[in-house]
Predict the structure.
Amino acid sequence: VAVATSLHAPVARAQAQPTTQLPFPFVLPTEIGSISLSTHIVELSAFDNGENGVGVSAVARFRLKNSALTSAFTTVRFSSPVNATLPADLAVTMDGVPANVYVTDGGGLALNVELAAEGSTELQLTYSLSLPKTAIQAIRYPAALLTNWQQRISMSVRIQLPESVVAESVVQIAPDDWIFPADAGQSYAVRWLYDGVPSEQPFSVAFIQ
């Protein structure tokens, strides 16, 4: 079941879209066991960044749950869909406390997680990214990477555009099954609520800047 709600959403218009993928960091398993991802919530807020174009600040939460009746241990890794360097300002907390993230032998980032029987924990990632300077900008959140967890996941994805971008400047949203009328002259925000195996289609908004 997937549901999208929008504060202001225009009718999608077909135009050439930029294809550059941003290095969004995800929490991924190193093994499949009793500890798994149950919920993922991400808030992406775009902002005008002066001569640097458009920036995106992100707060991403990953709730891990232990389904076993005994305590369990696992290691999770942090990875992006383009295997690029993770954001330099990436900060990770576990239940509100700075997490003991470490560098692996291969140069990646990882975290050890131990949970009590039927216990859970929430990892929060905060970071920022910059969009490439193009006439048409696009924020695409590739949640398909979460299929590595091999199970259904409850997700909430929200994309908020800068106040300088009015609804009429938005040329496409996807998935586009849920599009609501926009108020003229208002900035754009959309939220998708999704419960299931992550789709291959990214959650995305394209707009003219």
The radius of gyration is 18 Å. Residues 6-14, 178-182 have pLDDT under 50 and may be disordered. Residues 32 and 149 are 7 Å apart (CA to CA).
